[in-house]
């Protein structure tokens, strides 16, 4: 945890969250430098912030997450903006992003298989154009239906 707050507050919050290492009274440029140092060690870094002082680190991080109740600068500097100030939204956003990525891969996979089979058949004249158009419509419906499963995503 990297914070501009005083040492006592930082260690109390870190203990509450189960974080082993907390850097306190850190300046904005030093936050970005610490993120860069972790990245140079091969770490993937996510930064969560809400203020102007967090913006450089949010930009530097592999994943910048702004708290929606924070400053406009932090929101503009981040990759994701949480609508509430609840930090559990960070893990929810990451899980939703992973599920969305899996759904995209599924949709691409089915589209690839469909087109790999259907295009040569259509080019050879084996596939009736009416059947091909119906299959294309079914393909579109299946992609949309598969994507709609994300609607059921729960925290």
Question: Can you characterise this structure?
Answer:
The chain is mainly alpha-helical and 155 residues long. The chain contains 6 helices and 3 strands. Helix 5 runs antiparallel to helix 6 (129-148). The longest helix has 36 residues, at 88-123.
SSE string? HHEHEHEHH
Largest sheet: 3 strands, parallel
Number of strands: 3
Quaternary organisation of the protein chains: single chain
Order of the strands making up the biggest sheet: 1-2-3
> Can you give the helix content as a percent range?
55-70%
The outline comes out as elongated
What are the segments in which pLDDT stays under 50 over at least 5 consecutive residues?
none
Class from secondary-structure proportions: mainly alpha
Rounded radius of gyration (Å): 23 Å
Strand composition percent? 5-15%
N- and C-termini, Cα separation: 24 Å
Please give the count of helices.
Answer: 6
Quick check: average pLDDT?
Answer: 91
In short:
59% of the residues lie in helices and 8% in strands. The protein is built from six helices and three strands, in the order ααβαβαβαα.
Please describe the topology of this protein:
Elements: H1 7-17, H2 28-40, E1 46-49, H3 55-60, E2 63-67, H4 72-77, E3 80-82, H5 88-123, H6 129-148
């Amino acid at each position: 945890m990297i914070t501009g707050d005083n040492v006592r507050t930082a260690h109390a919050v870190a203990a509450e969250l189960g974080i082993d290492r907390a850097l306190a009274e850190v300046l904005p440029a030093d936050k970005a430098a610490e993120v860069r140092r972790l990245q140079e060690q091969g770490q993937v870094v996510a930064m969560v912030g809400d203020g102007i002082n967090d913006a450089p680190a949010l930009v530097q991080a592999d994943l910048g997450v702004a708290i929606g109740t924070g400053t406009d600068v932090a929101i503009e500097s981040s990759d994701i903006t949480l609508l509430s100030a609840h930090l559990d939204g960070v893990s929810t956003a990451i899980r939703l992003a992973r599920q969305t990525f899996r759904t995209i891969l599924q949709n691409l996979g089915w589209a690839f298989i469909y087109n790999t089979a259907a295009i040569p058949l259509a080019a050879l004249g084996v596939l009736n154009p009416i059947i091909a158009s119906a299959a294309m419509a079914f393909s579109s419906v299946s992609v949309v239906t598969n994507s709609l499963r994300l609607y059921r995503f729960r925290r």
